[in-house]
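Course assignment 3, question 2. Fill in each field.
Student: A.L.
Task: Predict the tertiary structure for the chain below.
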Amino acid sequence: MKPFCFETLKWGEEASVYRDHTQEFVQSLSQGVYPLWTRTYASGVPNEFFLRRIGDFNPVYVAMAILVKAGMPFKMIYTGFLCLYYFLGVIGFYMFARLIFHDRSWAMIAAAGLLFSSWSFTLAYTYMLLIFTPGVWFFYFFFLFWKSPAKNSLLGCVFCAMILLTTYIPIYFLLIALAVCVFTVLFYGKEYGLYIANGFHYLKHHFVLTIVCAAALVFSVIPLFNLFESGKRGEIVMPYRSEKLAGDNGFKVGTKIYKEDGVFTYLRPYQVIHKKQDLKLDLFYISPFFYLVFILGSFVRLNKRMLILFLIGLIFFIFGSTEAFSLRQFLTQYIPVLSYFRNLRFFVWLIILPIMILLAVEQLKVLWQEIQDSDLIQAKKWLWKISLVHVLFVILLVAVRIDLWSVYLLVILNWFFWYGTVAKRRLDYYQFFLSTIIIAAIFLHAGELFTRVWAVEKREQKVSQELGKVTALLAPAELSQKASPILYISTAYFSAFYVLTEPQVRDKYLNDLIAVYDRTSSSGKSANVFGDTKLENAILSSDVKGGFQLFKTDANSFDIKTQFQGPRLLVINDAYFPGWKVFVKGVEQPLLRANYAFKGVFLPAGENEVIFKYLPGKDIVVKIVNFIFFYGIFFVLCARIIFFREDREDVRL
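Answer field:
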């Protein structure tokens, strides 16, 4: 937490985008404006895409807006939010582990494993954290409901699902949920038959609550559906993802893009234990303690829970590997929604890493029990096996030249842990003491690793800053001309405009938000002051200076006061898009697609007040209904947890 809250830590490029759009959204909320449009990217795009990425219905943003309104710096608010959200996810993982293992000690070891894993680095990679935290709480409430149906668990399950379904690509969550449900039914079908019957009986008995929850889930998907419909209609394009400017759907991912970065990039065998030169912010890491458990786990009997966890991890390892590209192509033919998401590496942190920790703890639990049940001769055999594994592990560390001292200390402490387990296997209180030793060992190694990662990141950040200073001193002629970057997302008209115009001319034109012309060519709903996108030939009005004033503006509107000697064409260099309306003296006027990609309106001579407003009718209605569902369920759930706590048994999976 220290580097994020009290130091200047380098943010990844995509993480910075999440932070900036969160700031824009929260600051707009603090001013009483819900930002349906954003002007900070590609001369204006519908904000729905970026709202889907951050999950705009999450109640934490209202709390953040209140703090911003109170004058608290946004950086402090945002970093605090990431840290607290991460710990909330760890708590959810602990609660879920309690359901699985039916024991607090094993759940605590699992939570410590997650707390001091590479999830500690994902505070600078917001996108995965926003999926993981509600995801793990969803599974906790989900299994809790089917074991002992109750309003609290049902509302919690639905609320977490709503947050996940309002993300940009809920397919990560849906695929994980599907895999967990399928394997649970396959291996525990008979045992869970009664639970499922009781659950459906409860839903049938509470018919009104069931209908409300179902409606909430349906409405939470509608904004995403509307966004993809805009892509189908070609109104929004994503050239970087689709490898083209326009097409049958602007949101489909090109084959080259989702072949670039799979899970195997972060799960190579030589990256399991990290050297100094391997350290980076997005490394994959779980404590070496768990690798030792994996090895020792090969000596214990296999059970259903181990098999389920292993198969789920294996499925997502195969599906998320770029080497399994042909499998992805095959599945896309029958599951079209798969063509809309990329970033297969997300599965490393969202499911593979948590599954590895749960699998290791299950092996540890079985191994512990076998040692407890062993006689003196069997206990000695276990001690020899454990000692041999630790010696071989140290030899491996030395052979590959691992230079982190804490990993050797961890192995030594781990051996003492197992020695104590064998020697004191009949003393129940010793379990807590040994668990404390193991958690301390995990903490020590993670602490050294994380400290070195921060040092590497700060050093790279300093080098980058110094390089920036040197570059700034170079004369323009000494700088190599760079090609224009490909737009990530934009409106279709602006995307074409962006490509067809010369970069220098385009940038000069876009320096001015407002342009006024007295000579135009118009046709239908469009008006252009140039015929072939040569902007330098556009003739500005002679009385443009002093003839208008941008009176008021926010995310969704422009309010301009004008006074011209004759009729003029007023152009806002903000992208043209369906849903925008223009009012002159309070009367709606035709909105023109001016200069190929922007918004314009013809004005009469004299004084006028011109208001451009973004008013996508059906989207506004859906937003209102979703806010009612989200905050209604949220406040009811909070009230019931505080005032109507329901007694229930832990579920044994």
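Instructor remarks: Residues 190 and 196 are 10 Å apart (CA to CA). The chain has 22 helices and 15 strands.
Grade: pending
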